[in-house]
Specification:
six-stranded antiparallel β-sheet, two-stranded antiparallel sheet, mainly beta
């Protein structure tokens, strides 16, 4: 796995799921995942292992299948599970 740098976050995508009865997907694009790695400029509001919701148009592919890279500013929220 590549280590994230600066304000980047590597996210392992999850299949769409329900959260509080709401299906968490938009237009069949997956936008929920688990943080695998975060850069040194990412704040403490997100940690490795957190399940996050992110802006679906800001993700970039990574060398690994089902892993994307986003800037911290593309994170919309952290699930409190």
């Amino acid at each position: 796995m590549v280590k994230a740098i600066l304000d980047r976050v590597f996210i392992k995508l999850e299949e769409p799921t329900k959260h509080n009865g709401i299906i968490m997907e938009l237009d069949n694009d997956r936008n929920i995942g688990v943080v695998l790695s975060k850069g040194e400029e990412v704040t403490d509001s997100v940690k490795v292992g957190d399940k996050v919701l992110f802006h679906k148009w800001d993700d970039l592919p990574s060398p690994e299948k089902d892993v994307v890279v986003v800037r911290e500013s593309s994170l919309l929220g952290v699930f409190d599970e």
